[in-house]
Amino acid sequence: MLKHAVKEGFEVKGSRTNLIFYALTQKHLEYLMGYRGKFLLYLCPMRIDIISVIPELLESPLAHSIMKRARDKGLLEVQVHHLRQWAVNEYGQVDDYQYGGGAGMVMMPEPLANAIEALSKERQYDEIIYMTPDGQDFSQGIANQLSLKENLLIICGHYKGIDQRIRDHFVTKEISIGNYVLSGGELAAAVVVDAVGRLLPGVLNNETSALFDSFQDNLLAPPVYTRPAEFRGWKVPDILLSGDLKKIDEWRYEQAVQRTAERKPDLLKD
């Protein structure tokens, strides 16, 4: 399997116990699907640690639906750490006024450095991620890459952000989920955890589902339909009822290209 993967142009990534194969083209995907009808993907669990000053904001997003399933199956472990346990004084202080003046508080370097160093003694992190509006735009490609890691540490900013020295000396990756500002980095971190966690093999009921999502291969997903075949006079396209899987795949690809060209043409330029 490994020799064939390399020969056919698979990208083999990651340092996990078991190899991870990513389908880079439709041809590769068809090959993988033909291998006993399913992917040969069984991984050791992923661990994500999150540093936050308001851990409660992360309770609901991680306690339901697919993320709950991932955690219950032991495929994803997420631990949220309250930054105030590394506060500089008994009052739980983790922020202070910014040098040079100006409105807004800044998260202090000492609590963050102590938190990162304490957690890093327990495991080696593949990435230390800071959620910030001026970071790299989050994308499906980044989610794919992060899903191949074993241990991630995410820092949730608050107030005016974190002291630049932490970014310079500890952070290895900075991620933004859009050109807007939130009250803190917790909701952004939840977005990253969800996008990455659902890619772990065994999390979704259909192991190939994630590979057909929007933005895989830089295409939006095609239209989808379910029963009944006719609703209020609106009919499902005949091709989807034909049973001809080859023609259905061709139709879906054409629809995906058309939808991408109409709604997000920049994706087709990549």
Question: What is this entry, summarized?
Answer:
This protein is an alpha/beta fold.
What is the H/E string? HEEHEHHEEEHEHEHEHEEHH
Structure classification: alpha/beta
Proportion of helical residues: 25-40%
**Number of helical elements:** 10
Radius of gyration: 22 Å
Q: Please report the first level of CATH classification, the CATH class of the largest domain.
A: Alpha Beta
Identify the CATH architecture of the largest domain.
3-Layer(aba) Sandwich
DSSP strand count: 11
CATH fold-type name of the largest domain: Alpha/beta knot
Strand content: 15-25%
CATH superfamily (homologous) name of the largest domain: SPOUT methyltransferase, trefoil knot domain
Report the sheet with the most strands, covering strand number, pairing sense and barrel closure: 5 strands, parallel
Widest sheet: strand order?
4-3-8-7-9
Amino-to-carboxy terminus distance:
30 Å
- The general outline is elongated
Question: Which helices and strands appear, and what pairs or packs with what?
Answer:
Blueprint: H1 2-8, E1 11-13, E2 20-22, H2 26-34, E3 46-52, H3 59-62, H4 65-72, E4 76-82, E5 95-97, E6 105-107, H5 109-120, E7 127-137, H6 140-146, E8 151-156, H7 164-169, E9 173-176, H8 186-197, E10 230-231, E11 234-235, H9 238-241, H10 245-263
Parallel strand pairs: 3-4, 3-8, 7-8, 7-9
Antiparallel strand pairs: 1-2, 5-6, 10-11
Kindly describe this structure.
- This protein is an alpha/beta fold and 270 residues long.
- It has three domains: 2-42, no CATH class; 46-197, Alpha/beta knot (3-Layer(aba) Sandwich), CATH 3.40.1280.10; 214-269, tRNA(m1g37)methyltransferase, domain 2 (Trp Operon Repressor, Chain A).
- The chain contains ten helices and eleven strands.
- It has a five-stranded parallel beta sheet with strand order 4-3-8-7-9, with helices on both faces. Strands 1-2 form a two-stranded antiparallel sheet. Strands 5-6 form a two-stranded antiparallel ribbon.
- Strand 7, helix 6 (140-146) and strand 8 (151-156) form a beta-alpha-beta unit.
- The longest helix has 19 residues, at 245-263.
